[in-house]
Design goal:
There is one protein chain. The protein has 8 helices and 6 strands; from the N terminus they run βαβαβαβααβαααβ. It has 237 residues and is an alpha/beta fold. The chain folds into 2 domains: 185 residues, 3-Layer(aba) Sandwich (Rossmann fold), CATH 3.40.50; 32 residues, no CATH class. The longest helix is centred in the middle third of the chain and has 29 residues.
């Protein structure tokens, strides 16, 4: 949301995945000009585990559009393994991509967002709130995003609003990682997650994207430092 209550330029990372594509579609439909950042291809490509990529990415967006009003940090890496066998290098790769990359992105974008009176939305996870066996790296990185959200919301207020979305299970290709770790089929893991939710289903990417659009819209202007949890009721605290 721009200072005058309108839309502006949004940078969305991880835009090649199922949720990323839904975010680009939903924000575009809401009137945002979207810079869709991917891991490998396109004008805004880059691996956010690389220490220099966030600065370069933000610079390219501002050079192209002359402003930046919204950052949606949706990029994520995920592998699962028991704590005693998870390779340490891989553990840190996940944490540094998901948490470190988001921090570097926010740091690079902050001066532009202050100027625009813009906002940041970090995509955390239900597992960052509850934890999950075999997902220590992913859950730790997503829990870190909750802390980063609250710290930056205080630091950057009143000029920049900072919020997070911590979804439950979403029907995207990432569920394949869960299924492989559990030793079940993709349909079985979908059914397990659906049965665990009081609403008895998992989310569509569009439903999560709608939450992000709300946080970036004038209707969400009084939200900062908040973690919204669209998860079908699996957590209620």
């Amino acid at each position: 949301m721009t200072a005058d209550g309108g839309t502006g330029v949004a940078l969305v990372t991880g835009s090649a995945g199922g949720l990323g594509r839904a975010l680009v579609t939903a924000l575009s439909a809401a009137g945002w000009t979207v810079a869709a950042a991917t891991h490998r291809d396109g004008p805004f490509a880059g691996d956010l585990a690389d220490l220099t990529v966030a600065d370069e990415l933000v610079a390219r967006v501002v050079e192209r559009f002359s402003r930046l009003d919204l950052v949606v940090a949706n990029h994520a890496a995920m592998t699962m393994a028991p704590v005693d066998t998870h390779p340490v290098d891989d553990w840190w790769r996940i944490v540094d991509t998901n948490l470190g990359g988001s921090f570097r992105l926010a740091r690079a974008a902050a001066p532009h967002l202050v100027h625009a009176r813009g906002s940041i939305v970090f995509i955390s996870s239900e597992w960052g709130v509850t934890g999950w066996p075999g997902a220590t790296a992913y859950a730790s990185s997503k829990a870190g995003l909750v802390g980063l959200t609250k710290a930056l919301a205080r630091e950057l207020a009143p000029d920049v609003r900072v919020n997070a979305v911590a979804p439950g299970a979403i029907d995207t290709s990432q569920l394949a990682v869960d299924a492989e770790a559990a030793g079940v089929t993709l349909d079985e893991v979908r059914a397990r997650y659906a049965n665990a939710a009081p609403l008895r289903r998992i989310a569509s990417p569009a439903e999560i994207a709608a939450t992000v659009v709300f946080l970036a819209a004038p209707e969400g202007a009084y939200y900062t430092g908040q973690v919204l949890q669209p998860n079908g009721g699996t957590t209620m605290a």
